Amino acid sequence: xxNLIAPTFAAVDLDAIAAFxxxxxxxxxxxxxxxxxxxxxxxxxxxxxxxxxxxxxLEDAKAGKIITLNYPAGMAATALDIICLERRPDALDAxxxxxxxxxxxxxxxxxxxxxxxxxxxxxxxxxxxxxxxxTPHKSDAEVKARSxxxxxxxxxxxxxxxxxxxxxxxxAHMTRDLTNEPANVLTTTEFAIxxxxxxxxxxxxxxxxxxxxxxxxxxxxxxxxxGSDSPSKVVVMHWNGGEKxxxxxxxxxxxxxxxxxxxxxKPAAGMEDMTMDMGGAGVVSGVMRTLALRGAKANVVGxxxxxxxxxxxxxxxxxxxxxxMKGDTVEVINTDAEGRLVLCDVMWYAQExxxxxxxxxxxxxxGAIVVGLGHENAGVFSNDDALCSAFLNAAxxxxxxxxxxxxxxxxxxxxxxxxxxxxxxxxxxxxxxxxAQFLQRFVKDGTPWIHLDIAGVAxxxxxxxxxxxxxxxxxxxxxxxxxxxxxxx
Length: 489
Ligand code: BES
Ligand code: MN
Ligand code: ZN
What we know:
Layout lengths: L6 E4 L12 E6 L7 H9 L3 H7 L12 E4 L8 E6 L6 H14 L3 E8 L4 H11 L15 E7 L2 H26 L7 H9 L7 E5 L1 H7 L2 H7 L7 E8 L8 E11 L19 H15 L5 E11 L11 E3 L5 E3 L7 H16 L3 E6 L3 H7 L4 E5 L2 H14 L3 E3 L4 H5 L8 E2 L7 H10 L8 E5 L5 E2 L9 E2 L4 H12 L2
Parallel strand pairs: 1-6, 2-4, 2-5, 5-6, 9-10, 9-13, 12-16, 13-17, 14-15
Antiparallel strand pairs: 3-4, 7-8, 8-10, 11-12, 14-17, 18-19
Helix pairs in contact: 3-4, 4-5, 5-9, 8-10, 9-15, 10-14, 12-15
The chain binds ligand BES, manganese (II) ion (MN) and zinc ion.
The site of manganese (II) ion has 4 residues, from loops.
C-alpha cells in the first residue's frame, strides 16, 4: 500500500533538528509553553515560534488546523508545522492533530517532534488516515515517497502501539481504494481477485461462483446480477485467530459494484456515484484485512455478495417473483431496491453455515438514510440491545458517527404482498426502516444482529476529519474495536 505512511520512532535528538531536510512539525499545548524540541526550533528560527504564541495565533493550530511557516530561516527544513495539542490529549484529539499533519504531508521526509506527548501513536494514526489519496487513474501522479520520523520520549513503547494502529489504517485504506474504484475496473471478478490476494495475510478466502450460488438457491442475489455480463459471486473470508470451535462473528457486506437501478433505472444525474454501492463489502474487506494484520485473537467470517445491477433483456422486471435461499418469496416492485435482495441470501447462508455468535451487515442501502441522518451518522438497526450498545460505544470511541433507528411490526406490515410472501419495498414512508425490516425477516431467532445503513457515510463530497473527499472507510475502526472489545480476551 504505497499510500500508507510508514513511521519510524526515535528518541528526541535536538541536534538533528537544524539539519533535517523536509517538514518539521512540533506540538504546543494551549498554554503556549514550549518543550525542548520547540525551544530548539524557536532558537534556530530566532524566536519565530514564540512570536506565533505571543501573537495569540495558537487558536489557528487547534482542532485539526495547523500553522505552517514555509522555508524557515535558520533551519534546513522546507516547512515548519505548528500544531496545538495538549501533552495528555484524548485519543480523538491526538488523531485530529495528526490528521492536520497528514493532510500537509507532501513527497519527501517529515519529522514530528512529539517530545513527551502521551499519544504519539494516535497522532501517527490520524496522520496515516488523512494522508490517503486515490491516484491510480491520475497519469501525472507522482509516487510520493513519504517518510515520517517521530521523535518522542518512549519510542520503544510508541512503535508497537503504532504498528497495531496502522493495521487499522491499512484496512481503512483498502476499504477506500475499493470504494473509490470505478466500476469498469472493480468488476465482480476483479473484486474477488483482490480479496483472494489477502490469503497472503493468513486469511482463508473462498469464491463461490454462479453455479454454486444457483445450487444453494440464492435466487434473490442472482436475480440482481442477471442483467449484467459480470458474473455474480459471493466471497467468504475466514479469519480464525480465536479458539478452535468457537463460533465466529459474521460480517456481511453489500457489494453492488454498480447500481444503475436495473429496469427501474435511476435518473442520469449523480448516477456515477453508484460506483460506491459496494461500500458495505468494502468495509467488510477492510476489517478482515485489519484483523489479519493485527493478528486478532478472534474468529470472524466476512461474506460479501458481489453483483452488478444492470438493465438488459434478461434483467429482473418489476413484478417478478423470486424465491430466496430461505424459501420465502419476494415480489420485486422496484429493481432499484436491490441491496436487500443481495443481503438476504448472504445473511441466510451465513447463519445456515456458521451459526454465528452475532451478525453485522453493512450496506449503502437507502437514499432515505441520507435524508434522515445526512453524512454524519450511519443508521444502526438491531434486534439485540447488548450487541447494539457495544457497537455504539465502539463507534463513539472511534469518532465514527452512528445513530440507532427503530424497528417494529407496523413497519414490517408495510412489506405485505398480494401475491408473494413480501414485497421488496414498503413505500415512501420510513424507507430505511422498511429496508431494515426486510432484512430482519432473514435473521433467525436467537441471532444477535446489527444492520448498518452506510449510504450517507461511505463516501462524502467534502472532507472529514480523517478522510479527504471520496470514500471514508467508515466502520473499519469501529468494527475492529468491537471485535477487540467483545471477542478478544
Ligand atoms: N444504492 C442505493 C442507495 C443509495 C442511495 C446509496 C444514495 C448511496 C447513496 C439503493 O440500492 C437504492 O437504490 N435504494 C433505493 C430504494 C428505493 C427504490 C426503495 C432508494 O434509496 O431510492
Ligand atoms: Mn438501488
Ligand atoms: Zn444499491
